[in-house]
Amino acid sequence: MSNIKVGFVSLGCPKNQIDTEIMLKHLCDEGYQITGDETEADVVIINTCAFIESAKKEAIDNILDIAWLKENRSLKGIVVCGCLAERYGEDIVKELPEVDAVVGVGSIHEIAKAVEAAYRGKKFYSCLDKNTLPLGGDRIITTPEYTAYLKIAEGCDNRCTYCAIPDIRGVFRSRPIEDIVEEAKNLEAIGVKELNIVAQDTSRYGLDLYGEYSLAKLVRAITDATEIPWIRLLYCYPDKITDELCEEFKSNDRLVKYIDLPIQHINDTILKKMNRHGGRAVIEDAIARLRKACPDITIRSTGIVGFPGETEEQFEEFCAFIKEVKFDHFGAFTYSAEEGTPAAAFDGQVDEQTKQDRYDIIMQTQNAVVEENNNRMIGKTITVLVEGFDPVAEAYFARSSADAPEIDRKIYFTSRKKLTEGVFIKVKIHEAVDYDLFGEATL
User: Fold this and answer.
1) Alpha carbon of 102 to those of 86, 128, 271, 326: distances in Å?
2) Are residues 365 and 385 in the same domain?
3) 169 shares its domain with 289
4) In terms of CB atoms within 10 Å, which end of the chain has fewer, N or C?
5) Do 84 and 165 have their domain in common?
6) Are residues 278 and 206 in the same domain?
7) Any idea what the CATH number is for the domain that residue 420 is in?
């Protein structure tokens, strides 16, 4: 198959990106050529997201953009996989004749068959049981060589009323600690210095295998088996923040003092309607215990505005909490009524303009918090991981341990010495502009 060139478009979250990396490995093992230029590809694979309406629209727009290449270039086939394929596979077949193959999330190991069929002009459809998909697997890392994501579980059992992920990704299934540790060792061997641990619900890790929340035990095992400097936790839930995890933050120098803790709202009535596990008191307790154990911890969170039935008073309570708790990073979404989810049928659906207005207000509230937090950084010297050089800004850019890849702020800085990607250096912060920080390397 060495004469068949395959291009990839990977959309959505890092968990989806890992699936892309596994499919890349399968194709390379089968002898396919991978190209970064879609215009020269024989087959293009689009790994899609379908979490909210905007993600579905982005996926369909990408499919139609790539379809143009079938009409105007040498492209012979389009393969659609991922969450959109899993959720709307039959609709894709009916409504998008440009698509040649559909591969659900449980069928990623069938990707070579799909590419072969698409190349030959044949239709292919596979949506195997996602709950029996083998977890883990060899992959080709697509992130810069110094950073990687590590998926420790698949699926979700939380059943939030607004979310279709359990139907798309299946039940929650943890990977064994030994399997994860082995992958972490392999990633270290290829030069990874930052390990970003992900799952749909990272904090639930181990409950199905070991009968207890085991994230702290997993972090300790990775720490003991490797020398990776930065280990980062993403997608943790407030109701599952154990005392053991707090202690691990306190005592483990290589577990970066950063946690991604989506809260979605703070009003008890809304949280109950969302079927979030634990109300305001649980959220406040988790934050308090994390900050007590580790006073300098960075907390990132997300929230939903315009959930069905959200009153002005409930929204104001949410804004007041954001102002009070001072998350280091916070992102909001306007509620998206996803078909098949309980919340889509709730009374009191909020109109789009009100949703957008509330989004603007809560993000303005957070922007004031960010400005305050960033101004406190001026004059401090911090360790950063160099990511590259921006010729427009005429400065290097990097991240501190308080900033996750792709989603958080950048630190721009000048340096008298030429630097390479993936090195740790010290930067003294001189200025804060909007969301980002500016400084100078201390060499």
Assistant:
1) 8, 11, 36, 44
2) no
3) yes
4) C
5) no
6) yes
7) 2.40.50.140
CA distance 413 to 383: 12
pTM of the complete model beyond 0.85: yes
Q: At which residue do the structure tokens 């088996």 appear?
A: 225
Q: How far apart (Å, rounded) are the C-alpha atoms in residues 277 and 264? A: 11
Q: CA end-to-end span of the chain, whole Å?
A: 50
Residues 176 and 201 in one domain: yes
The residues facing 77 across adjacent strands are: 43
Q: Is residue 140, in this structure, part of any structural domain at all?
A: no
Residues across the chain: 443
Joined together, the tokens standing for residue 289 give 């215990």
- H or E element, residue 48: strand 43-48
CB 1 within 8 A of CB 30: yes
Question: Phi/psi at 115 (nearest 5 deg)?
Answer: -65, -45
* CATH code of the domain containing 296: 3.80.30.20
Whether residue 115 contacts residue 4, with contact meaning beta carbons closer than 8 Å, is answered with yes
Cα(10)–Cα(57) distance, rounded to whole angstroms?
Answer: 14
Question: Does residue 257 share a domain with residue 126?
Answer: no
Q: Which domain holds residue 335?
A: 147-375
Q: Are residues 48 and 20 in the same domain?
A: yes
Number of domains in the chain: 3
The answer on 230 and 155 residing in a single domain is yes
| pLDDT tens-place values along the chain, 443 residues long | 568 999 999 998 999 999 999 999 999 999 999 999 999 999 999 999 987 888 889 999 999 999 999 988 889 999 999 999 999 999 999 999 999 999 999 999 999 999 999 999 999 999 999 999 999 999 999 999 999 999 999 999 999 999 999 999 999 999 999 999 999 999 999 999 999 999 999 999 999 999 999 999 999 999 999 999 999 999 999 999 999 999 999 999 999 999 999 999 999 999 999 999 999 999 999 999 999 999 999 999 999 999 999 999 999 999 999 999 999 999 999 999 999 999 999 999 999 999 999 999 999 999 999 999 999 999 999 999 999 999 998 999 999 999 999 999 999 999 999 999 999 999 999 999 989 999 999 97
Q: Are 23 and 45 in contact (CB under 8 A)?
A: yes
